[in-house]
Structure formats: structure tokens, C-alpha cells
Design goal:
Layout: E1 3-5, E2 11-13, E3 16-18, H1 29-42, E4 46-48, H2 57-65, E5 74-79, H3 86-100, E6 105-110, H4 118-131, E7 134-140, H5 144-149, H6 152-155, E8 158-164, H7 176-182, E9 187-190, H8 203-211, H9 216-225, E10 230-232, H10 239-246, H11 255-264
Parallel strand pairs: 3-4, 4-5, 5-6, 6-7, 7-8, 8-9, 9-10
Antiparallel strand pairs: 1-2
Helix pairs in contact: 1-2, 1-10, 3-4, 8-9
Bound molecules: NADP nicotinamide-adenine-dinucleotide phosphate (NAP).
Length: 277
Amino acid sequence: MRNLDLPSGIGMPVLGLGTWRMGEHRDQKNRELEAIDAALEAGITLIDTAEMYGEGGAEEVIGEAIRGRRDGLFLVSKFYPHNASRRGVAEACERSLARMDCEYIDLYLLHWPGGVPLSQTFEGLHELRDRGWIRDFGVSNFNLGNLQDIPEADQAQLGCNQVFYNLAHREVEWEVADWCQECRIPLMAYSPLDQGGSLLQSPALGKIAEAHQATAAQIALAWLLQRPDTAVIPKSARPQRIRENLGALEIELTTEDLAALERVFPAPDRAVRLDMR
Ligand code: NAP
């Protein structure tokens, strides 16, 4: 799989598995374990999670699913803004590591901007990196102003800005995406299928999918994968859909496809707020 280079020199896979809504209900656990297993079997190595998902439940499911096969995986987790103090981030990280039963997190993100001064958060993240608990760090849901508030030396070290981004929601393309690209900070597109909603019913998407003998979900992901320095983390708890989503990597959209999508899902042409799900 294609990788994006991170400040540590480690490559981040461009497609991973999202896990929001996993770990919330005990009776879904076996199904979720099977889904993660199917993802790993299919060759997906990046798993995105957060201490928030199922209040630790998603990390526990991941820990069980990856037991004995941590090597070669790329784990992304996120900490709450209320845990973003120097001490808070260390304690949150320790809990996440214990739940996933592993020694380090590949990429550790501040889930959204909060009230703790960012200088403290980044001091804490540097310490975690020095201890070997995390390999890279980054942010999520940061608009341009938030990014510019980050101490300059740390801006250059961000592993990604994880943002709400899909064909129907291109708000990030207003200022944020360009700034990140100039600073060589990858975007990680969350909700890339717009949470399985009406985007996937779009006739324009359906037409292009038919021409590529693909599905609408695959085209939506392929479009994001053709954006500069962008990774995607679709979530599914169904093995068949996980394999389907992975198939997006094989699709190359033509100039005509891109123009047709641009007509139906235009980029913002005026200031818009970066949305959050
Ligand atoms: P998403 O990946 O856009 O969509 C997930 C939904 O689409 C699920 O209901 C899933 O149902 C369905 N789906 C998956 N593959 C499909 C396919 N091929 N065809 C039709 N439906 C399909 O939404 P998301 O879960 O919000 O975003 C992905 C991940 O991003 C999350 O899981 C989480 O890891 C991360 N995230 C981060 C933030 C943040 O603030 N940083 C916010 C939201 C999400 P089934 O499971 O039944 O297949």
C-alpha cells in the first residue's frame, strides 16, 4: 500500500480502518473482532481509534484483535482535549496503551481543540515520544487559526490533521488543506463515506462507479485518495465492505470523472467553517 511520510521517517498507510461505534455494546464484540481480523487479513495495517470510542471499549476490542500481531501495524489513537495537559496526556496515553495491550502508539492525536494551552500539550507529546510510548503526534479537527496557534517548531512535526472530509463535505479545502500541504502535514479524512449516508446514493457517483465496475463507496474513497497527501479511514464492521473499501486503492479516476464530480460536489468558493462530526 502507498505510504505518506511522517516526521519520524515512518510511512503512514493511505487507507485504514475506522473504529468509531465499536466497543460500545458487548453483544457486538465478536462481530467487531471478526471485522478487524478481516481487515488485517486483507492487508489493512492502519487502525484508527480514540479513548472516546466506547469510552475505551474500542481500544479494548482492538487490543484483543491484534494480540500477537502488533508488529507491522500502524495504530492511531486520540486523546480528549480535557486530557491535553502535560500530565493528562501521559496518563491518557498510558491507559490507551494498557487497553490495546501494546507498547507504543504510532500516531497520537489531540481529538479536537480545547482549553489547555497547546505549549503544554506539545511538551507532553514530546515527552511521550522520548519515552517511546508514541512514534508521531498530530491533531484533529484543527482549523487554520487552531493550526497557527501551535508553537511553530511543533507545526513542522505534525504527523497529520485528521479532519471531516468527503466529497459532500469539502470545507477543509477552504484554507486548511492548502496550509497543511505547504507545511507537508498529511490530512487524514474521517467520515470519508459521509457516514454511509446519502452521498453513496448520488447518481453522479453511481454513474462513475458503473464505468469503473466499482461501487459508489469505492469511488468516494478513490476521489479522496487522489487528493494531495490524503489518507482515508472508512469504518465498517462488515468484512465484505472492508474488502470493498480496500479496493478503492486500485481505482484511478480520469480527468473527466474528476470534472463530473467537481460539478456535483464543488469545492467551497467562500469562507466556510471546518465542520466536525
Ligand atoms: P464513514 O467511515 O464515512 O462511514 C461509516 C458508515 O458507513 C458505517 O455506518 C458503515 O456501516 C457504512 N459503510 C462502510 N463501508 C461501506 C460501504 N462500502 N458501502 C456502504 N456503507 C458502508 O464514517 P465514520 O465512522 O464517521 O468515519 C470513519 C472513522 O473516522 C471513524 O470510525 C473514526 O475512526 C474516525 N472519526 C474521527 C473523528 C474525529 O473527530 N477525529 C470523527 C468521526 C470519525 P457498517 O459498519 O454497517 O458497514
